[in-house]
Design goal:
The protein is α+β, with helices and mostly antiparallel strands. The protein has 46 helices and ten strands. Strands 6-3-10-9 form a four-stranded antiparallel β-sheet, covered by helices on one side.
Length: 1323
């Protein structure tokens, strides 16, 4: 009994998609075998019919003529398909030499297979033509196999047309036969050569099959027509239902070991479904699936490119359509009966004379050897079609609703590839069992092929019906061979074999290795798009053979072959690169960087793809990605260097260059990536290319362009700003926009990851200079807007440049009987501008850290200097215009005052510095600092001018000073008093300048220090303006006029009004507190008189306008300023209050006499009451300024005035001398260098500098001398004490300088002294 239940119906089961059972395999293979019998030619019955002889003879001539015509046209059709649709395949150069010897042997009669006289004659004529120089030169150049065949066909046509034995058109048939023989001969010649393309072999097999088929059909048509009257004519074919008349059915029965009776039952069961109609429906379904994108037989997703998909689709649809047309040609009824449901004609067909499925003439075993046209072609892996599906057939398929998309087939199994693999494995197992079975004697002949001919034909027939492609057939066969190979030789002990057998096995291994290495050689054509699946079968065999250990004797030869393979990969890589770069450069456009950019993408993509697909070297040596990168990257670098000039010119040819700078830097990044990839994959190779030097000019140009855009960035940021707080930080949009613009080039430079550390540091230094420039410009712009708000212009004015002065002057002169200051109210916009400056410092500090400025500066300091670049050293002078005193008014009036500002101009008259205007004083104090950069001594003219409302400003006095680097080389701060002279050369007072110098360096720390200093000065200037706007009202409220009025009348304001106004956010409770500083009186002093008639409420009522002003404006500051800025402004306002109170009590220190009179005890008590009220107001019970900040050194100095205020004059002088002697005995103060730009390069250094600054108690003698200025006959004593102080300070400075000189001398002693110069010869 069979292993299978024959009563079951196989196709009614749900077939598994992944598992192939023997029952399912048997069912589908049997269907194909039945279909093969249906489509094969049948034995024809004969009958005598003399009346039809003439008609049949006429029909014979018609058919033979058509067959010959078809045979001749088929050659052109074959080559047309190759020329139009396929890539040219060249034959090896050695073929010409082998073919020459072959033709010579045939002509001399040494080849038995070509002993026919006509064949020898044709070959001899072609040999003579072949030996001609023009022909051989042509063949060596193009090496086209098609042209070689056509040339033979041309010579054969000339010879055979003149042959007298070939009557009528018989010579045409002979031409086809000889062409087929020539193609077969070429195929034989190629078998002995190495590195033969598999595609070339496949193409020759296809040519031979087609030409042989055409000749066979012509012969059958000729044979089907009787040559004489007495011969029989064809009749209806004999149809059989016996399996013994079905050759492939018998093969299936033997393969699956099924008894004949069971096999007959299965055939009878399948007769109703195995019809020609079902086969046509399967073919049409395949066509419809292709058009619909169904998974089977193939779709676009199965191919790596559109070209591969289109080629496969064209060939597949052409082959399918030819099979359909062949069915319809053999049975015309199929064209009209496809949709029918009737299947009774399963095994009956109409007579088909000259069927395309006829057997080849001369075949001894007709049944076993006969195969259909599709199966014959499938043996060679090619198809005969090159045309598309006929339009009528395509429309019929698309319009036929019976043809459904999907896997709805009769003959095709659910998973054709798995069924095919199982079938081949089944056949191989059966044949190997037969070969090694006991029934085979050692004397029997063993076939050279692995598969027996019946099994080969059966497999080929299934290939056609199941649509199995050539790539899978080859791969599947190799995989199965590998598996069988492992099974057979796994358990054999080869070391115990006879020597001859072992050597034979080694030779077999060597030949096998050589064959598969050749296949691998030709498979490299797909580089760099090579797939693992394309070469994996070869690699598996090669690795197994190499690991067997039987290739030791062939190491030298294998090494040479592997070197050839490496050279092949390199050559193909170069070919790929050249083709791709030419294609990219041929594209239209003026951007010369674009082809190179796209080429880098291709190279990187190819390398990553190969590295992913082939992470390990092939056959232990061939590293594909390294070989490809080794060739392509140097080629790309060469093209890049050759394009250097064009790239540079195209990137700088106008505002909109042909090559955008972004593309240049993208090219830099891609090139850097390729070079890193080259180093990784080819560590032993080197590319002579300096990436940094090549692209450095582009970075410098970009930095220059960025610097030129700074002005636009600043202006755009300020113009778009409404100066409204955007968040809790209190700043507006302009500072955020500006730093966003500055961070963009910073991030860009960092993303470049420049390899040259020195060049990278130079780039960031240049960018630091641009950032510093932008910050300074922003400070100027914001200060201009701030000044316009703080000094608003009237709507109508005569001269715009004088408006601020006019307004300020008008406000101060708008009085009736006495001057009254109009309070200035602050605006929120002014506060926001001050917040912006403070926020800029934080943002700049973040940028400092992001740029790693310290690291950049270290890189510059450690790098060797550039020898060709010698710059003159530059120096940065910090000039602070402090104050002027004893200015002489231009008006002779005794009450005349000056509105002064200072300018500094260079030798050419260019104004370098201009201060703000200080109004109504002969002793102005500006306290403004400016930076002046010089590279040689610079003379400056210092001019003090009196601001005029109309016309030119009058010159109060002028003087000159030289900023000489040699003079300020100690880098210390120098106080320089300049005596002023007017045009009449008279003395007009003097001005104090505080000057220091430092070296100006081209490094990032210096530029960031300048930027921080600019922000700090802007912040200080803006805060000073705030205080200056408060100061007039503070001075008016805390003046001697108000004090005298309070003492004289007891009140200055209405009491109820005072109570209403003495309220506010920062008012404190009245009365003494424990924190109030109490100064004990000496025992000799009698208690001071306290005015009991004035209460604290009355005393406070006198300064209620000041509290009202603070309530209104400090609330604005508290709301709109940040915490840090608000605290600073409040402390400066408090300092101004202390300064005003101090000036209310005592005059400034000077040698000149003072007309200021001391206050009475009652007035002094009132002043200190005011001080207490203001301190409590600013403290606001802990919610305002901290008490320790309010009671600072300045506060303690003011309070100490109360101690000495009413001492006797002699006692004050003695205390002054004692205090001076005590201060001289203390440690000598060291005069430190000026605060450098480097000390302000970031917030960290600024904070460290502040920690070093500690409050020192002021020498009490100065306070005493200021009190003595109000006493008579003390001028000489004060002048003497000031001279002593000045002399002692000068001595201290000289001592410090000498100490510094001794330290420098000691450091030089450890150095090798320089070689003295050679003495000059006397003339």
């Amino acid at each position: 009994m069979s292993r299978r239940s024959y009563d079951s119906v196989a196709h009614e089961k749900r077939l598994s998609k992944y598992r192939v059972t023997d029952d399912d395999l048997f069912d589908y293979v049997l269907r194909v075998a039945i279909l093969s019998y249906i489509t094969s030619p049948k034995v024809l019955a004969t009958q005598s019919n003399g009346a039809e002889t003439k008609e049949k003879e006429k029909e014979h001539h018609s058919k033979i003529s058509g067959a010959i015509s078809h045979s001749i046209i088929s050659i052109g059709d074959i080559f047309k398909e190759i020329r139009d649709g396929s890539k040219s395949v060249k034959f090896p150069e050695k073929l010409l030499k082998v073919l020459e010897q072959k033709l010579q042997n045939i002509a001399m009669g040494k080849e038995a297979a070509y002993s026919d006289q006509l064949t020898r004659r044709t070959m001899a004529v072609f040999y003579n033509h072949f030996m001609g120089d023009p022909f051989r030169r042509q063949m060596k150049e193009n090496r086209s196999i098609e042209e070689l065949i056509l040339m033979f066909a041309s010579q054969a046509t000339v010879v055979l047309r003149k042959e007298p034995t070939l009557v009528d058109d018989a010579w045409k048939v002979e031409v086809n036969n000889q062409i087929a023989q020539f193609v077969r001969m070429l195929r034989d010649c190629l078998r002995g050569l190495s590195h033969v393309s598999p595609e070339l072999n496949s193409r020759l097999d296809m040519y031979h099959a087609k030409l042989s088929q055409s000749s066979s059909e012509s012969a059958r048509d000729s044979a089907s027509t009787p040559r004489g009257r007495g011969e029989s004519v064809s009749a209806a074919p004999r149809i059989s239902t016996s399996i013994h008349d079905m050759p492939f059915v018998l093969v299936v029965a033997r393969l699956f070991k099924i008894p004949d009776n069971a096999m007959q039952t299965e055939v009878d069961r399948l007769r109703k479904i195995c019809t020609e109609k079902a086969a046509v429906v399967d073919l049409k379904t395949c066509l419809k699936n292709i058009n619909a994108g169904a998974p089977f037989p193939g779709r676009r997703e199965d191919f790596v490119s559109d070209a591969a998909w289109n080629q496969w689709r064209t060939l597949e649809t052409s082959h399918l359509s030819q099979l359909i047309m062949a069915f319809m040609a053999s049975n015309p009824e199929l064209a009209n009966s496809i949709p029918a449901d009737d299947g009774n004609s399963s095994l009956s067909t109409s007579p088909r004379l000259g069927s395309v499925y006829a057997v080849t003439s001369g075949t001894s075993n007709r049944h076993i050897g006969a195969t259909s046209i599709g199966s014959r072609r499938s043996m060679y892996g090619g198809t005969s079609g090159g045309d598309d599906v006929p339009e009528s057939l395509q429309e019929g398929i698309e319009g036929d609703e019976e043809i459904r998309v999907g896997h709805n087939f009769t003959y095709i199994p659910p998973n054709p590839k798995r069924f095919y693999k199982r079938l081949v494995e089944y056949c191989l197992t059966t044949d190997l069992e037969t070969m090694f079975g006991p029934e085979v004697d050692d004397a029997d002949e063993v076939p050279l092929t692995i598969l027996s001919p019946p099994h080969t034909n059966l497999i080929n027939e299934c290939v056609v019906r199941w649509r199995i492609g050539q790539p899978y057939r080859a791969t599947c066969f190799l995989e199965l061979i590998k598996e069988f190979y492992e099974r057979i030789l796994h358990d054999l002990e080869i070391d115990k074999w006879p020597t001859q057998d072992e050597e034979l096995l080694a030779n077999v291994y060597g030949s096998l290795y050589n064959i598969f290495l050749s296949l691998l050689y030709h498979a490299m054509e797909a580089i760099p798009n090579l797939k693992v699946s394309e070469i994996q079968p070869y690699l598996t065999v090669l690795d197994d053979v190499r690991e067997s250990g039987h290739l030791t004797r062939f190491e030298a030869d294998i090494g040479a072959r592997l070197s050839d393979l490496e050279d092949r990969v390199k050559a193909l890589s170069e070919e790929f690169y050249q083709q791709k770069i030419q294609q990219l450069q041929a594209a239209p456009g003026v951007n010369h960087a674009l082809p190179l950019l796209l080429m880098t993408d291709e190279l990187e993509k190819a390398a990553k793809q190969l590295d992913k697909r082939f992470p390990e070297p092939l056959v232990g040596r061939i590293d594909l990605v390294s070989l490809v990168v080794e060739v392509t990257v140097p080629l790309y670098i060469a093209d890049l260097q050759n394009s250097s000039k064009k790239l540079l010119e195209s990137s700088m040819n106008g505002p909109t260059p042909d090559v955008p700078i972004q593309d240049i830097f993208a090219l830099y990044r891609r090139t850097k990536s390729l070079l890193l990839m080259f180093e990784a994959f080819c560590p032993k190779e080197h590319v002579d290319f300096d990436l940094s030097q090549f692209f450095m000019s582009y970075v410098l140009q970009w930095l220059s362009d960025t610097d030129s855009k700074t002005n636009q960035w600043v202006q755009a940021a300020i113009a778009a700003d409404k100066f409204e707080a955007e968040n809790t930080d209190g700043h507006s949009s302009s500072i955020v926009d500006l730093f966003d613009s500055l961070r963009s080039p910073l991030a860009f430079l960092q993303d470049l990851e420049w390899s040259d550390e020195y060049q990278n540091a130079r780039f960031f230094t240049s960018l630091s200079k641009t950032i510093s420039k932008a910050i300074e410009q922003y400070c100027r712009g914001v200060e201009e807007l701030f000044m316009a708000e703080m000094f608003p212009r009237p709507t109508e004015y005569l001269q715009p440049q004088k408006s601020s002065a006019w307004l300020e002057k008008a406000r101060q002169l708008a009085t009736t009987s006495e001057k009254k200051v109009e309070p200035f109210n602050f605006r929120p916009e002014s506060c926001i501008k001050l917040n912006n400056v403070e926020s800029a410092r934080k943002l700049l500090d973040n940028m400092y850290n992001q740029m790693q400025v310290d690291k950049i500066t270290d890189a510059l300091s450690t790098s060797p200097p550039v020898p060709d670049k010698v710059d003159r050293p530059k120096f940065l002078f910090t000039t602070k215009i402090v104050m002027a005193e004893d200015l002489v008014p231009l008006d002779s009036s005794p009450t005349a005052q000056l509105d002064t500002f200072v300018t500094l101009s260079d030798e050419a008259g260019n104004r370098l510095v201009k201060t703000r205007t200080i109004y109504e004083t002969l002793n102005p104090r500006w306290e403004e600092t400016f930076d002046i950069s010089v590279d040689k001594p610079l003379w400056l003219m210092c001019s003090i001018r009196d601001r005029a409302l109309v016309g030119q400003h009058d010159v109060v006095g002028r003087s000159f000073i030289c900023l000489n680097p040699a003079q300020y080389g100690d880098f210390l701060t120098h106080d320089v008093w300049l005596n002023l002279e007017a045009t009449n050369h008279g003395h007009h007072g003097r001005i104090l300048l505080r000057i220091s110098m430092e070296g100006e360096k081209d490094d990032a720390q210096f530029y960031f220090g300048r930027a921080f200093r600019s922000l700090k000065r802007s912040e200080g200037d803006m805060m000073r303006i705030f205080i200056d706007k408060m100061s007039p009202l503070i001075r008016q409220s805390l003046s001697r006029t108000v004090l005298k009025s309070l003492v004289k009348t007891g009140t200055v304001l209405d009491y109820n009004k005072a109570l209403a106004n003495v309220t506010g956010l920062y008012r404190s409770a009245l009365g003494a507190t424990s924190s109030e500083v109490q100064v004990p009186l000496p025992s000799s002093e009698k208690p001071r008189f306290r005015a009991e008639e004035l209460t604290d409420v009355e005393i406070e009522r006198a300064i209620v306008p000041l509290f009202d002003y603070f309530d209104a404006n400090l609330q604005i500051l508290n709301t709109h300023l940040t915490e840090t800025v608000k605290d600073t402004v409040m402390l400066k306002a408090w300092k101004e209050v202390l300064t005003v109170i101090e000036g209310l009590l005592i005059p400034p220190l000077s040698k000149l006499p003072s007309d200021m009179k001391p206050l009475s005890d009652k007035e002094v008590d009132i002043v200190f009451k005011w001080l207490k009220f203001l301190r409590d107001y600013f403290h606001a019970e802990g919610e305002g300024v901290p008490l320790e900040d309010l009671q600072n050194q300045k506060y303690r100095d003011v309070v100490s005035i109360r101690l000495y205020y009413d001492w006797h004059t002699d006692t004050l002088m003695e205390e002054c001398v004692r205090a001076m002697q005590q201060s001289l005995r203390e440690a000598v103060p060291v005069k430190k260098r000026v605060k450098s730009v480097y000390n302000q390069r970031n917030l960290g250094t600024i904070k460290e500098r502040k920690k070093e600054k500690q409050e020192k108690e002021v020498f009490n003698g100065e306070t005493i001398m200021r009190i003595l200025r109000m006493r008579p006959n003390t001028q000489e004593f004060i002048a003497q004490q000031l001279d002593i102080m000045q002399a002692m300070r000068a001595e201290q400075e000289r001592s410090q300088a000498a100490q510094q000189h001794r330290k420098s001398q000691r450091s030089r002693q450890g150095q090798i002294p320089p070689v003295p110069p050679l003495p000059t010869k006397d003339p």
